Amino acid sequence: MAEITMIEAIRQAMDEELARDENVFIVGEDVGQRGGVFRATVGLFDKYGGERVIDSPLAEASIVGVGIGAALYGMRPICEIQFADFIHPAFNQIINEAAKMCYRSNGDWTVPMVIRAPYGGGIGGGLYHSQSLEALFTHTPGLKVVVPSSPYDAKGLLKSAVRDPNPVLYFEPKKGYRLIKGEVPEGEYTVPIGPANVTRAGSDLTVFSYGMMHYYTLQAAEAVAKEGIDVEVVDLRTLYPVDRETILKSVSKTGKALIVHEDNLTGGYGGEIAAIIAEGAFSDLDAPVRRLAGPDVPAVPFSHPMQDWFMLNPAKIAEAIRQLARY
Amino acid sequence: MAVPSSADKACGLGLPGEMVDGTDVFAVFGAVSKAVERARKGNGPSLIETRMYRITPHSSDDDDRTYRSREEVEENKKRDPLLLARTLLEKEGLLTAAQIDEMEAKAKTMVDEAVKAAEAAPYPAPEDAAYPVYAEEVRHG
Question: What are residue B19's DSSP bridge partners?
Fold first, then answer.
């Protein structure tokens, strides 16, 4: 098996889906000739042409609106939002149109589309190139929300997202695009949307995370293992709909739960996981459920020391693990 | 765009719209002066499209070689508004080459000094990033 980067896995998934199904097409800012600002679509314009890899105007509402229309017509759009931070103009299209279409038409109309959006900070991007926005969409029935943390999952989940009959928001941890490498098989495979993944088995406590923070969590778990703390790590992967069963099974085993995400704490996705644990595994808990998340400020600051203050990292996660282990 | 100029979109907003050659400093000055005068009279905004070419890449992360030729960029550098303005000012005898050189040197010094001052300034305290999220937390006067 070849070891490739996250971004290459994403590119491969799109390449293979474009080749597999002529209804699949890509639309977004600079996705064509430029190959995307992160190079996720590099080579696809030359291979599939400008009618299937479409450079759009700088208008996110239109990118998603075009996608919804094409999906209703039977196509399989992959809409690229250049940075998740730019998704806000498309919010109405996503929430009021894509998410509600199936329900409001009693299933006569469905919206099989993928919206890809690079998210997250730590890249010197400042307020408008660093946002984590999953919580805005995990509150919206009708959408699926996926966040991969490895090249294997990134490719397999994106292929599943393209084939899914529903609108799927696919948030890509941009800091990990080239940092996270992993083995990806040569042949065809998919990773199902829905199940979480126990990426490290352990007995003392469970850490739940996703995306870039899952990558860091594995490093933190490795670090504290040397101190005798045996951590189980669950990569949630699909945030909506969430895999309650895997969450509860793990907490029942370890008795302690820490939830880690980069997005700010209040109203963040971690609250939902904490609620699931409180409702479904209360009698198994040996400690209060803990959340480690970004601070409650509107965005990741640009200044480097301030960015470091905002961002979680393996050391901060390891410290939260130690505190919970001591409880 | 479905219309030849962004300025045409002003029509739907009930505003005056004007397209000017954005490389022509004097044409831009004329159009903006008219709009400013209109605004100062309380007659509301105007829409001006100053049409020109982006000579530099979008940002330090943008490798523009992937989507436009060097020839195209070089050709447009000849239409740099600063260069065109300089040539015209000299030709019309409004300023001498020495006077323009002096202005340019002065501008360069200002920028260099600003860069030096910014680079010498200390970083903020990391924990100051916690504020001000709300108006009540604003600390400076």
Answer: B49
Does A6 share its domain with A153? yes
Confidence of residue A139 (pLDDT cuts 50, 70, 90): very high
How many whole angstroms separate alpha carbon A259 and alpha carbon A185? 30
Range of the domain at A309: 197-326
Chain B contact present for A295, CB below 8 A: yes
B67 is catalytic: yes
DSSP letter string, A169-191? EEEEEGGGTTT-EEEE-SS----
- Interface touch B61/A37, C-beta < 8 Å: yes
Q: How confident is the model at residue A111 (pLDDT cuts 50, 70, 90)?
A: very high
- State whether residue B119 sits within 8 Å of chain A by CB: no
If one counts every other C-beta atom within 10 angstroms of the C-beta of residue A232, the result is 22
Known catalytic membership, residue B53: no
Is B130 close to A298, i.e. CB distance below 8 A?
Answer: no
Lowest mean pLDDT: which of A61-70, A165-174, A261-270, B62-71? B62-71
Q: Is residue A192 one of the residues assigned to a domain?
A: no
Under a CB-based contact definition with an 8 Å cutoff, are residues A56 and A115 in contact?
A: no
- Select from A184, A218, A246 the last residue of a domain: A184
List the single residue in B with minimal CA-CA distance to A302: B129
**Residue A302 belongs to domain with CATH number:** 3.40.50.920
User: Which chain A residue lies closest to B62 (C-alpha atoms)?
Assistant: A37
Last residue of a domain, one of A184, A210, A226: A184
Find the CATH number of the domain harbouring A123.
Answer: 3.40.50.970
- List pLDDT tens digits, range A218-232: 999 999 999 999 999
As for how many domains chain A has, the answer is 2
**Mean pLDDT for the stretch of residues B112-119:** 97
How far apart are the CA of A37 and the nearest CA of chain B, in angstroms?
A: 8
Q: Which residues pair with B18 in a beta bridge?
A: B48
Does one domain contain both A274 and A216? yes
C-alpha torsion angle, residues A229, A268, A165, A118 (rounded to 10): -80
For residues A210 and A319, membership in a common domain is answered with: yes
Q: What is the mean pLDDT of residues A248-255?
A: 98
pLDDT of res. A117:
98
Q: Which chain B positions have a beta carbon within 8 Å of A35's beta carbon?
A: 66
What's the pLDDT score for residue B141? 64
